[in-house]
Structure formats: structure tokens, C-alpha cells
From TrEMBL:
Catalytic activity as recorded in UniProt: uroporphyrinogen III + 4 H(+) = coproporphyrinogen III + 4 CO2
Source organism of this protein record: Chlamydomonas eustigma
UniProt-listed PANTHER family: METHYLTETRAHYDROFOLATE:HOMOCYSTEINE METHYLTRANSFERASE RELATED (PTHR21091), UROPORPHYRINOGEN DECARBOXYLASE (PTHR21091:SF169)
Listed pathway(s): Porphyrin-containing compound metabolism; protoporphyrin-IX biosynthesis; coproporphyrinogen-III from 5-aminolevulinate: step 4/4
Pfam families from the UniProt entry: URO-D
Protein name per its UniProtKB record: Uroporphyrinogen decarboxylase
Subcellular location: Plastid, Chloroplast
Family of the protein in this entry: Belongs to the uroporphyrinogen decarboxylase family.
Length: 392
């Protein structure tokens, strides 16, 4: 594991009380997100991956760059592999295939971050929650909608239930060495709960919102279990080679801000606090799809890095959360369908804006790279970002 020192600063806290039936869970949130802890290592470690050094707060020659969903769907080599291995679970759960897919974009584009090819639902099989994937997406075998079902959700033992994740991370870390940071990732509790309760993807989220507003105690029990399990899953990934953990929350933006404060934010914060209690030197990135209206609340969860989507100008986003956080993002992935000149212009626009605010920055998209994106345009994106220090 790599180490960093944290600044000793006094955080002014406010206490948000979350009531669950007859018990109260106290969640600490920042009263002023601009006062967040920033990384300030006492020594440099130039042999560490660039992205890890940047997130630690070390001086780096340029912003690191990677793309969400960079492994997979837009690459011809991946599409050819899918012809031989048509099921997503085989591709994500067979170590050799997961490692191969993870390394495909690293070989092609040399990103500074290499994210494991897996899925946020993968650990559910270790929680007594059956699932699979069809052509429309994930399908939960037995959607959870009763208290008895919630009680049957078990504690995750990742080493026993998903050992292929740890082995794949180990092999990826060995393959890339210090040339790139290895990213593990997890799903946030509310997003996992939406799949578990809805039975799969949903347009209206009627089942989970019915649970939230008619039997909230039951939903809180489920979210609590998920938060504990996901914190353990973060630890497992870090112990098997992940330099950085990213938390993905696909559906928290479907909540009103006041409901985010009850059903999403406290459980994200619980994961981060629990994980950091045992792995304080592993940076955590928080990404919420469509989360432009939640940036201050994301900051209150106290990740090391706030990933900003393309719905927000990055300067406005930084001003809202303060300069104490690293930021990631936030080019529109649709730009990658444009000309090389437009890609160069937009990549440099994001990098210059973030640089002008004096914050740690990881260049990324505001969402995952889209299917059908030309690979030569992805190559342009990476080339421009890698040579940004020669262009500003």
C-alpha cells in the first residue's frame, strides 16, 4: 500500500440525525464543504502512479487521465471477444477474461487509471441476493420487498463469494506496475437498493419509492446492510491491488435533495468513514450520475475526490464544493463523436479551467464513454490530455 499524510485541520461539523424507527443514527456532515481535508504528503514518491500522486496532493507535471467505462463496449477487440464469450457474467467473473478486458484500453491508449472490468452488482451473490443479466440489463432473481427478505441479506465475505475479483485485481496490478493506478469500484447503497427492490432497471422507481415513503424502516435496514457490506468490499479490493476506489451512484439523482439526505448521503458517508478507518491512505472518488444538483451533498460525504458530471461547468462545480477536494471530470462523452479539433479544444478547456482554480484534477468524462465512439477519437482524447502540459 502507498502512504500519504493528511493535514491536521479542524473541521466545523454539524450533526444530521437520521431516525430509523426508534433508533437514531448520527451522521457527521461538513457545515462548510470548502473546509474539507486536503491531501498533503510530507514526501514525494515519484515512482507511484501519476493518478495516485495527483490525488495525494503531490506536484505532478500534468493532470492524470482515464475514462469511465473505458474497458469494453466501444472497442473492436472487446466486441470480438464477446462473440466467443457472449454472457456478461462470464466476461466479468472469469479472471482471465476480466483481466484481458481491463487491459485492452491500457494497451491501446495508456490511460493513467485502469479500472477493473466488473459490475456494481457483482458482490450481491455474496449477500444471498441472486441476479443475472439479460439483453436489457440486470435481473434480480427475487426482488426484495418484505422485511423477511431484507433480514435474509447476509454479511459479505468477498474472499469466499467473489474471489475472482481479488485475483483479477492482483493480476492487473502486476501487469501495469507503476505505469497506471488500478481502480476498484463499488456501487452506492441507494443505487444497489434500487436494483434489488425494483428487480432490475426502472424508469419510475415506483417500488423503492413506495418502500421509502411507506415502510422507511425496512429500506433503512437494507441500506444499512448494504453500506456495511460495501465498506468491506472496498477493503477487499484495496487489499488485492486497488490503489483507488470509486463509488458509483447511478440513481441517487432520482431523489429530491431532502430525500438524498435521508436515503443516500448518510450511507455513502458511512462507507467512506468505515473504509477510511482501516485504509486511510487509499483515495476514494465519489461519482453520482446526473448529480449536478447534489455537489455540496457529495462533498459532505467527505470523499477525497468529487467526480463532476457534464451538467455542471467545472469552475462552478469547484466553487460550490471548495478547493479542498480533488475533482474529476467532466467532458461530455458526446464530444468524442466530433472532430479531432473539437476534442482537443474541449479536453484543454476542462483542464485549463480546473488548473485555473488551483485544485487537484483528474481528467475524465462526465459519464461513461458511449457505445459506438470511434476508437481513433478516444486515442485523440488521451493524447491531448497526456500532452496537456505542452499545450497550456
Amino acid at each position: 500500500m502507498h502512504s500519504k499524510c493528511l493535514q491536521n485541520v479542524n473541521l466545523e461539523m454539524r450533526q444530521c440525525s437520521l431516525v430509523k424507527g426508534n433508533r437514531s443514527v448520527t451522521v457527521a456532515a461538513l457545515s462548510n464543504p470548502t473546509q474539507a481535508v486536503a491531501s498533503a504528503p510530507s514526501t514525494s514518491s515519484s515512482s507511484a502512479p501519476l493518478m495516485l500522486r495527483a490525488l495525494r496532493g503531490e506536484a505532478v507535471e500534468r493532470p492524470p487521465v482515464w475514462m469511465m467505462r473505458q474497458a469494453g463496449r466501444y472497442m473492436k477487440v472487446y466486441q470480438e471477444l464477446c462473440q466467443k464469450h457472449p454472457t456478461f457474467r462470464e466476461r466479468s467473473e472469469r479472471v482471465d477474461l476480466s483481466v484481458e478486458i481491463t487491459l485492452q484500453p491500457w494497451r491501446a491508449f495508456k490511460p493513467d487509471g485502469v479500472v477493473l472490468f466488473s459490475d456494481i452488482l457483482t458482490p450481491l451473490q455474496g449477500m444471498n441476493i441472486g441476479f443475472d443479466f439479460n439483453h436489457k440489463g440486470p435481473v434480480i432473481t427475487d426482488p426484495i420487498r418484505t422485511l423477511e427478505q431484507v433480514k435474509r441479506v447476509t454479511r459479505l465475505n468477498a474472499a469466499e463469494s467473489v474471489p475472482f475479483v481479488g485475483e483479477a485485481l492482483r493480476q492487473v496490478a502486476e501487469a501495469v506496475g507503476d505505469s497506471a493506478a488500478v481502480l476498484g469500484f463499488v456501487g452506492a447503497p441507494f443505487t444497489l437498493a434500487t436494483y434489488i427492490v425494483e428487480g432490475g432497471t426502472s424508469k419510475n422507481f415506483d417500488n423503492i419509492k413506495r418502500m421509502a415513503f411507506t415502510t422507511p424502516d425496512m429500506l433503512h435496514l437494507l441500506l444499512d446492510k448494504l453500506a456495511d457490506n460495501i465498506a468491506d468490499y472496498c477493503r477487499y479490493q484495496a487489499d488485492h491491488g486497488a490503489h483507488i476506489i470509486q463509488i458509483f451512484d447511478s440513481w441517487a439523482s432520482q431523489l429530491m435533495p431532502q430525500d438524498f439526505d435521508v436515503f443516500a448521503g448518510p450511507y455513502i458517508k458511512k462507507i467512506i468513514t468505515s473504509f477510511k478507518s482501516t485504509h486511510p491512505h487509499i483515495p476514494v472518488i465519489l461519482y453520482i450520475s446526473g448529480g449536478g444538483g447534489l455537489l455540496e451533498r457529495m462533498a459532505a460525504c467527505n470523499p477525497d475526490c468529487v467526480s463532476i458530471d457534464q451538467s455542471v461547468d467545472i469552475v462552478d462545480g469547484i466553487k460550490r464544493i471548495g478547493s479542498g477536494f480533488a475533482v474529476q471530470g467532466n467532458m461530455d462523452p458526446g464530444v468524442l463523436f466530433g472532430s479531432k479539433a473539437s476534442i482537443e479544444e474541449r479536453v484543454m478547456d476542462v483542464i485549463k479551467k480546473a488548473r485555473g482554480q488551483g485544485v487537484r484534477h483528474v481528467m475524465n468524462l462526465g459519464h461513461g464513454v458511449l457505445p459506438g465512439t470511434p476508437e481513433e477519437n478516444v486515442a485523440t482524447y488521451f493524447e491531448v490530455a497526456r500532452t496537456a502540459h505542452l499545450r497550456w
